Amino acid sequence: xxxxxxxxxxxxxxxxxxxxxxxxxxxxxxxxxxxxxxxxxxxxxxxxxxxxxxxxxxxxxxxxxxxxxxxxxxxxxxxxxxxxxxxxxxxxxxxxxxxxxxxxxxxxxxxxxxxxxxxxxxxxxxxxxxxxxxxxxxxxxxxxxxxxxxxxxxxxxxxxxxxxxxxxxxxxxxxxxxxxxxxxxxxxxxxxxxxxxxxxxxxxxxxxxxxxxxxxxxxxxxxxxxxxxxxxxxxxxxxxxxxxxxxxxxxxxxxxxxxxxxxxxxxxxxxxxxxxxxxxxxxxxxxxxxxxxx
Length: 294
What we know:
The chain is of the alpha/beta class and 294 residues long. The chain is built from eleven helices and eleven strands.
């Protein structure tokens, strides 16, 4: 049974006319008739009752018709999917992410995406969640990795939770271990520690300061205002300790002592966001799939 034969069979079944069916599938009428007869021989049953000016389906034809339509529909779907993937030979994805996610989460995922689709340009914008939400809303980004809850929730954005990440305390190996040398440190133990703090508007700054205040003290900053790389460099230099995501500490751990926070600890929820009113481009949807399946 050939795919082409099923196409011809469905065309005749729908038009109830061999000549019109041949025109519909762009083939000569004798060729179409020969293929229908070949299909009937293979199946061992007539598919049509042929009376002058009156073509009707036999019981065998009625049984075959829904199956043939389903096969053709599945083939059409497969063709479109393959064509869409083939179109990923070129194009771009505009992805926004917080600096900590650019350091911790994205390198491995982007490497896998680039290996699979080397022709797709990856345009990455670093920023805080508030800035990224604004860029998404105005159409400057296709996707953004943001920290929940969003500073300004918007029904115009769709968010999908990606992961829940622990935060840890990093310090210089040459400095005394926070928490009086214990293997874990409590937020309360950060009282009296000099903190290396991120700039205003940074998600990790707000989370850390709020956690300290919940324990009844104001954090003491040794230095503040940096991005992720600067903060890690200041900690390595022994200027103080910092609270950073576990993935960042794992990737940037050389020259740092990493101490987990005691339960319940501190966590942050990472989500993938895009505009609700516009579907991301095909290449962006593929990157979205890879992030969700990581």
